[in-house]
Amino acid sequence: MRADHPLLTYGERILCQQPFKLLKGITSASLAYPIAERMEKRSVRPKLQELRDYYQLPYQQRQSIIAKRLAETVRYAGLHVPYYKDLFASIGFNPDRIENDINFLNDIPYLTKDIIREQGHRLLSRPLAEVRHHVCKTGGSTGLSCFIYYDQTGADYSSAVTLYCREAIGKKKYLSELHFACRFPDATVPEWPSREDFKCFAMNRSNIFFDRIDDIGLEEMWQTLRLRKPYLIHSHPSTIYALACYIERKYGGGKAFSVFESSGELLEPYMRTKIEKALNCRVVNRYGLAELGVMAYETNPQSTDLYVLDSEGVCENRDLDGNNELIFTGFHNQLMPLIRYATGDLATIDERDDGVYLTNIVGRIHDIVNLAGVDYPTHHIQDILDHRVGGIQEFQIDVRGDKPILRVVLEPNADQATVQAKLEHFFPDAFILEFVNHDSFILVGHRAKFRHVVTK
């Protein structure tokens, strides 16, 4: 049966109403999720309980655990990761010192995206062929993209952290959630049921697929939200801000969900204010990155400060042109441990009696670009380039002229003619295409930062 069959559409409408919605949520949490976890050979729920127990401990008690985990991470990297083996030998670094004094971490040089790109598989503790792994591509909003590899344990901890954080703001497993995702131009209607259908049922999650944020696309989003009425939605703030402006302009406001969880880019104060007012919801911010997962979360409804998840790693500040750059060391990804990773994001670290908080966060901006009369967020364009075009290492769109210029850096093994044909298929007559090297990208701002869209 096709996923758009009228019977399934009718069934969805029924399951969006009470008490069927509650029954579906309870079945998802108590039955479908454990089955899916076992089928996928994952271990998330034990790690979720581990997090619950860990954060019951006072911060002073957790500090000794943090120091021990940090020492174990650095020691493991020095023994098993070629890059760190050579680095520690060259600087005469002894990881055992850290457990007694965490300040010895300062002896290790910072890790950057450039180093990750340059070192490649020398940052892995084991060959990828020998271990079950997951790959993530960084977004490129704070520097050129690179690939990060997670082992299964690291991926399971990342999932458990998301569940724990949402649980901390009242989002229990039986309450529904909705995720905004890219709709690809060549997408076809899938058959039902599929593996993705069961995954969504187990997660008590549904998706909104979108490809534009003009009035037509925003109205489609709104009608879907009004039908499903999820407890929590997860998206980039620029997308939901556009939706809030549209709903306020057309309807004077409205309510279709309780919590908006913002991630992937900077949540500006004006965005928060507009979303809260126009969509009548609570806005929750989080700080996560492809390199490490969710590392800080806004848990207090009375404050916009983000609570650092010290179970997952430690954070530091380094001075960068008079600003505080965020530095993280992660604990749980033994396949590709990142030590003192320079994120490119700015934030102030504030240590308090109950833990560490991030304030004054600056970073991760996703632009909106108009192509052939349609507004697209850059994360949507990147999804198409990554998952439909392929062979592209990095891109930049220059909109300063009469027609946008798309500059593309190809992967070493990519075929230029194939990439060009696919780009013309997905974005017909939308831009002038240029194949370039990285040094042809235009850097913007006083810190010469890379941005996907150049406007001036």
UniProtKB/TrEMBL annotation:
Example GO molecular function: ligase activity
Gene3D superfamilies: N-terminal domain of ligase-like
InterPro entries: ANL_N_sf, CapK_Type1_Caps_Biosynth
Membrane-crossing segments per the record: none
Domain of life of the native organism: Bacteria
Alphabetically ordered keywords of this record: Ligase
SUPFAM superfamilies xref list: Acetyl-CoA synthetase-like (SSF56801)
Descriptive protein name: Phenylacetate--CoA ligase family protein
Source species of the chain: Rouxiella aceris
Upper lineage: Bacteria, Pseudomonadati, Pseudomonadota, Gammaproteobacteria, Enterobacterales
